[in-house]
Structure formats: C-alpha cells, structure tokens
Amino acid sequence: MDVEARLRELSRSPDLSPFGEIVEPLLAYDRERRSDLIRTLRVYFASGANVSEAADRLFLHRNSMLYRLARVEKLTGLDLKDPRARLALQLGILFVGRHERRAEDEVEHP
C-alpha cells in the first residue's frame, strides 16, 4: 500500500475541511504573533507524540514544548492525550498543508 499517495489523495478531499477549521485558531495565532504552533504540532506528531524528541528537533527546552502544546490545547479546546483529538489535529494539518502549498505555488507562478 502506498500510504503517501493515499494521504495526498485524502488531502484533496473537501471532507477534510471541518478538520481545517479545527486548526484555524492555530493558524490565526501563528499569523498574529509570528509563532510556530502549526510547525510545533507537525514536529510533535512526526516524533510520535514524544515531547522530549519534538523539543530536541525544534531546539527547544522541554518546558517550552509543553507550553506550546498547552497553548494548542487552549486554542483548540482539544486534549492532546485523547487519540481522537490528535487524529483530528493531524487531519487538520494535512488539510491546511495542502492549501499552504497551493498558495505558495500561486505566488511563485502568477
């Protein structure tokens, strides 16, 4: 099974738009404060939800990582200990990632 191809296909689905809405407060927070909550979540998930490993990858102190994740929970109202909440956030990031790439392509190729 080609997982990457399936995820690319899924990212194009309009069915993911409600998940994009879940991460919208994070996108707004990042834009307004020039922060990296979306990037933090991407690295956190890529690290298997391991706070210490994600902090190392981001060159952050573990407590800074915990602070960012607490901010994510506060802004989204989701508990990162809940596997369903983590999945919803991952789907939201997948959805917005596709739209970010499309916006970058439009800027590069007017």
**CATH top level?**
Mainly Alpha
- What gap, in angstroms, lies between the N and C termini? 36 Å
Shape: globular
CATH architecture, by name, is Orthogonal Bundle
Superfamily (CATH H level) name: PucR C-terminal helix-turn-helix domain
Number of domains: 1
Main sheet makeup: none
> What proportion of the residues form beta strands (DSSP E)?
under 5%
Q: What's the Cα radius of gyration?
A: 14 Å
Enumerate the spans where pLDDT stays under 50 for 5 or more consecutive residues: 102-109
- Helix fraction? over 70%
Describe the protein's architecture and organization:
It is a single chain. With 110 residues, the chain is mostly helical. The protein has one domain (16-108): PucR C-terminal helix-turn-helix domain (Arc Repressor Mutant, subunit A), CATH 1.10.10.2840. Helices cover 76% and strands 0% of the residues. It contains 6 helices and no strands. α1 packs across α6 (83-108), α2 crosses α6 and α4 packs across α5 (62-76). The protein is globular and about 35 Å long.
